[in-house]
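User: We ran a pulldown and think these components assemble together. Before we commit to crystallization trials, I'd like a predicted model of the whole complex to look at. Sequences follow.
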Amino acid sequence: MKTAICPGSFDPMTLGHLNIVRRTSRIFDRVVVLVLVNANKRSPMFTIDERVDMIKRIVAPFENVEVASYDGLLAEFARRFERPVIVKGLRAGTDFENEFQMSQINKTINPELETMFLTSSVKYTFLSSSVVRELASYGSDLSEFVPREIVDEVLAKARGGSYNG
Ligand code: PNS
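Assistant: Here's a predicted model for the assembly, 165 residues in total across the polymer chains.
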């Protein structure tokens, strides 16, 4: 069974992330969407548990996709699986250098670990969680940017209110 790990901070998951997860699920037998801490991103909007909960609802229709979180190194988490492949989306320009560095470091820590990149769909090339957080802070319609299951939740969080589903 070939397993892919789709790692990220997913704060929150965007339609661009979901596009990558969907395409990965068509290539691999099993996909683990893994919520991790990005040490460079401070003051997250959602807790790790909230992100896992949201992603579980979003990917519920996909039979071979599961969701996990890990409070450590991606390369260490990956040891739980037999020859897993990390799959990430690559957007225009700036992603490359950072992703290239991370893949090299991950392979140094865990030499069996390969990283593959799927080029992002043109529609989502300029979409990011930080753009979503900014739009949400202005109360903007998010339906073009995040999965419908979490549109209201992200807006409620930005307003500082609680969300009751
Ligand atoms: O969605 P992001 O923020 O671009 O994802 C980056 C992430 C979370 C995958 C990366 O920061 C990560 O792997 N964090 C876990 C800790 C780790 O393994 N760090 C070493 C990476 S060089």
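The mean pLDDT is 95. That may be worth checking against your pulldown data before setting up trials.

User: Thanks, that helps.
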